[in-house]
Design a protein that fits this description.
CATH class of the largest domain: Alpha Beta
Number of strands: 18
Oligomer: single chain
Shape: globular
Helix content: 25-40%
Number of helices: 9
CATH architecture of the largest domain: 2-Layer Sandwich
Distance between the termini: 75 Å
């Protein structure tokens, strides 16, 4: 112990600096950093019974987000593609970080189920929707309820819930101020929840947003694998294209590196997303040939960035799955 104390006294300046450096490196500050991410080759995540391979690749782009430390915050002023912003600007005041993660996971599951349905229908392959499940995505501040984000809605007032409309129908059959009893599943455990019907902007509601996830049986059989760290609905379009490519004989990639982003519903409509600038930068960094982007503001933002940076990449706006497939048919394969 005497030797340890002597060592500390003799090296206290070095040890103080060392401890401060450790604190600087590992202690988080209340900021996030957004930066261009990489690409995920969606075809590698899809397993189809007797499926087809491709010469090129169909990729989704993603945004990298970091909890900031002081060194990372300082680096954000050096790297022009890194953006530093306070946590409170992206957080919803009445929910936890875990709620946000749960919502992103549900969004991803919904989008990818929709993607499979769209691709199989377009390819005229056999697919049967066996059930629909409704989940709680968000609970509004005005809501008078103990419902939680991530609850699967099983029944309301004894009436089974499968689609979003099932709950809406029950609400409309009651009056503002009535309290509804709901059965839900949360992490596989059954609970009784209660919600009072309120009026917002002239509509009768219980103050929640829902996600509707379709269960299906497909022929040929298909499975899609994703990492626990991956979430969000913005890969829906590219998953649909990759599934379609895996179940049809003709290779729609034409040997190109194709990247894209955009949500998708089960009618094949493509929706706008966030972080398009970071995703385009990631696609350019990986030398992609083609970038699909939702038509509208996403496309305008991507084209402005392409012009500013003089990027050598083809950017294609799409509003539907058919738009993307038609472009590939006419220009790629």
């Amino acid at each position: 112990m005497k030797n340890i104390g002597q060592f500390i006294r003799e090296h206290k300046t070095f040890l103080t600096i060392y401890v401060l450096c450790i604190l600087l490196i590992f202690i988080k500050i209340p900021y996030y950093i957004d930066a261009p991410g990489g690409l995920i080759n969606v075809s590698e995540r899809i397993q189809v019974e007797d499926g087809y391979s491709s010469k090129g690749s169909l990729n989704l782009a993603y945004v990298s987000e970091y909890e900031a430390t002081i060194p990372l915050a300082l680096l954000s002023f050096i790297f022009p593609s890194w953006d530093l912003y306070p946590k409170e600007s992206s957080e919803i005041t009445n929910e936890s970080y875990e709620d946000m993660l749960t919502r992103d996971k549900l969004w991803m599951e919904e989008a990818y189920a929709n993607a499979v349905i769209v691709a199989y229908q377009k390819a005229q392959k056999e697919l049967t929707i066996t059930d629909k499940r409704a989940f709680v995505l968000y609970v509004y501040e005005e809501a008078k309820t103990d419902i939680r984000v991530g609850d699967q809605l099983v029944s309301v007032e004894g009436i089974d819930i499968h689609a979003k409309e099932d709950l809406v129908d029950v609400i409309q059959s009651h009056e503002v101020g009535d309290t509804l009893t709901l059965e839900v599943l949360h992490d596989g455990i059954s609970y009784k929840r209660h919600a009072e019907i309120i009026e917002l902007e002239g509509m009768k509601l219980i103050g929640i947003a829902q996600s509707e996830i379709c269960d299906y049986v497909a022929n040929p059989a298909i499975s899609i694998s994703w990492r626990d760290s991956e979430s969000g609905p913005s890969g829906g379009l590219m998953v649909a294209l990759a599934v379609y490519n895996a179940i049809t004989e003709e290779d729609i990639t034409g040997g190109l590196t194709i990247v894209g982003t955009g949500t998708i519903d089960y009618n094949g409509n493509v929706g706008e997303i966030g972080g398009v600038a970071y995703k385009l930068k990631g696609a350019v960094h990986k030398k992609a040939d083609l970038f699909f982007v939702p038509a509208g503001e996403n496309y305008e933002e991507a084209m402005a960035l392409k012009k500013e940076k003089k990027y050598d990449i083809t950017i294609v706006p799409v509003s539907t799955f058919d738009d993307a497939l038609q472009y590939l048919e006419e220009n790629v394969f």
